[in-house]
Write a structure and sequence with these properties.
229 residues, alpha+beta, 3-stranded antiparallel beta sheet
Length: 229
Amino acid sequence: MFGVAKQASEGIKGDDSAQVGQRLRSAREEQGLSLREVARRLDISASALSQIETGKSRPSVKTLYAIVSELGLSMDELFAERGDERAAPAPSAPSAAPNGAPAEAPPVVQRADSRSSLELDSGVTWDRLTAAHDTNVDFLFTTYAPGSSSSGSEKLVRHNGREYGLILSGELELSVGFEKYRLGPGDSCSFDSNEPHRLANPGDEPTTAIWFVIGRRQSDPRQISFDGD
């Protein structure tokens, strides 16, 4: 099973990071927020946010979580083609168009060779596993390059939601609170994202995993912080 997953990942189309900054900027401007105001709320410099929006730099995992939470976006909306508004409806949402006709159902299958991919500053790559963005969950195929981590420092991050992961290949070091775990192929984990946590690849080969984050979108960006901050 793991060999199949690894082979499928090799066919993924090119990185979509160049469009991420533009989507973040569009979402900010649609809400009438200035660059300086959003940067102030996130406690980062306006220059750093500007470089992310213009594609001159890639955000770390923690910075991206903070930005999308502030703007009320689901993480995988960043992968969507511009103008693609198809989304998996919430379970309680009515499945009908404004004119009363049945709403168009979201795509069911995401082919391995056409997945959208997002490369982050910290050596982590996310591939979206849903064919359309889902407001309830971030469903991702993640790759951690050797020595990479979910935050660029040794500090831990926390945010709303709950995470579930399955390691496919390589080794992943998971820190949750004061506990630290080493996970290998076939190992899985689940934890409350409000607990300070960090994911890192301590090995010399890439680590791949399937990852779910449920309830992240309800995060208050002011609650996204690092242990010790």
